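Narrative of activities, Objective 1.

The group set out to show that a structural description can be obtained from nothing but a protein's sequence at a throughput compatible with the screening campaign. Below is one input-output pair from the validation batch, recorded exactly as produced.
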Amino acid sequence: MNGTTTSRKPPRGQRGARRHAPKARMPEELHQPAGAPDSETRGRIAAAATRLFAARGFDGVSIEEICSAANANSAAVHYHFGSKEGLFRYIVQQFAAEKWASARKTLRPPSTRDELKVRLEIFMRQLIEAVVSQPDIFTIVQRWTETIKLVDKNFIRDGMAGNFATVVDFFRRSKKSGLVADDIDPFYAAVTIASIIGHTIRNAQMLKDFLGYSLEDEKTREQWIEQTVRIFLNGILEKGDR
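Output recorded for this entry:
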């Protein structure tokens, strides 16, 4: 009895060291470089998932593949995002939050026609340049809007739909200032400009492949913005015919 008890207990001087040894007590949760903060791990996972979701779609990628590409333990997705769906939401939300924060600053109420025109041009430039510089993110957002199955109504209402309200409010305030015609509904003005932008972005690859029209070219991009805003605000008829 005594021999067995003695063999299980370490010498008195070593008991504290054994009790506090980190390797013996550390749970197998997250694998990250020593000293790396949680935010760094979260960023690596989001970046890896963005590339994989864009290339293969949501259903074509597993949590294990994402974590392998991010050099993280498979438990990291659940730890930081709750699930693969949560990770997908995070990517979309981060993109939308960043771009619409800029849009809200850009789409402040204009006081003149020229200011309205300039603010619309800046708004469109911000969206187009975001697509050109972050094509993977846009591919994911586009697939999300086409399937919707991954998100609930609250996410749509509070996220993308809430941001769309910024555009509606821009035209509403412009109309209140007398810059938009009385018979124009701000909602339909916002739908029209959003549709023009969305259609062009969605078909950007086709325009490039078949018509040689690339938004990646700065000169073409600027011409598209100028022409689109001009047509949207003034139409295509000569002034005397309007």
